[in-house]
């Protein structure tokens, strides 16, 4: 079924969900239908913890960012006590949007319509021409659940949040904390519109089978071995695998010296807040995303003791992934805009004392992922055209696309849970 006009009542969507074949890509409607897109917003983005920003983006009291998630708009702000807070970006008077800019700094939050004024902790302090007995305390901004995990800010729009987030945060914090992301600064941030469904963006990220051919800049530092076991290595890949083993040995010793956790955790589709954390060595000099693994910043992050500290890679369902290295971090966030359009934001973080032009060069810092993002944009656009073609039927995943299957399986589970609730 490829005619979107034939997709209508919830029963049809539920049937689409029920007939999803394990180990195969999704049917076209999951990527092209407005009805499924609306369901994704309600069942996934309105109910789960979403990576939204970094604390480095709001370093001082009054600093804010806004995030638009479908019809929802959220303000993330640092209050006067330096706590991170989040609110609906909606005035409690007549519903006007409070902040239109994506980021900035304020003393108070002032509605542009009738100047209702709120402190950055959300309390209403001014409302003109109200009757006697008007209770300002009952009309503060509506809070949104917000959590910072070692400097990574997550929000949840639901009244009741997924119950397992504390467990996931407790797992992730020992991996992230040594990089001290709270004491970093934003060196660069870019937004890229991809002409593809948000799930295609995430699926593309969840495998690197395409990396060897599509990402020449990336694989000068990356070992393109994701999803492979020792038994899967082809003769062509044998030299790469041997370099990987040597680099892995160095990384293991570096982690041991600093008591850095070494266990890989892969719980992508076995819990509500699906995640994966892995720590992989880099090729060449093994330091960073520079050519042949060279450093791109001379000032190391946090308490990282060794420039050859590999790539701490974290995946979070449904919309984010992170790369933490000895000299910088790159964090990614995906938001759905339409059935066939998505917004990918990439943020590069360096030590707060790193100086541009002295400790790092912006072009060198960003060139690999700028190139990789553009390459992925084209791949996702091609995939969207393909799944929109009447000739498309779901195809089987390969042995090295296990994380794609895990993402899709998690997604289907969350849709089923939505209909059961």
TrEMBL record:
<keyword id="KW-0479">Metal-binding</keyword>
<dbReference type="InterPro" id="IPR036922">
    <property type="entry name" value="Rieske_2Fe-2S_sf"/>
</dbReference>
<feature type="domain" description="Rieske">
    <location>
        <begin position="50"/>
        <end position="155"/>
    </location>
</feature>
<keyword id="KW-0411">Iron-sulfur</keyword>
<dbReference type="InterPro" id="IPR001663">
    <property type="entry name" value="Rng_hydr_dOase-A"/>
</dbReference>
<dbReference type="GO" id="GO:0005506">
    <property type="term" value="F:iron ion binding"/>
</dbReference>
<keyword id="KW-0560">Oxidoreductase</keyword>
<keyword id="KW-0001">2Fe-2S</keyword>
<dbReference type="GO" id="GO:0004497">
    <property type="term" value="F:monooxygenase activity"/>
</dbReference>
<dbReference type="GO" id="GO:0016705">
    <property type="term" value="F:oxidoreductase activity, acting on paired donors, with incorporation or reduction of molecular oxygen"/>
</dbReference>
<dbReference type="Pfam" id="PF00848">
    <property type="entry name" value="Ring_hydroxyl_A"/>
</dbReference>
<dbReference type="Pfam" id="PF00355">
    <property type="entry name" value="Rieske"/>
</dbReference>
<keyword id="KW-0408">Iron</keyword>
<dbReference type="GO" id="GO:0051537">
    <property type="term" value="F:2 iron, 2 sulfur cluster binding"/>
</dbReference>
<dbReference type="InterPro" id="IPR017941">
    <property type="entry name" value="Rieske_2Fe-2S"/>
</dbReference>
<protein>
    <submittedName>
        <fullName>Putative iron-sulfur protein</fullName>
    </submittedName>
</protein>
<dbReference type="InterPro" id="IPR015879">
    <property type="entry name" value="Ring_hydroxy_dOase_asu_C_dom"/>
</dbReference>
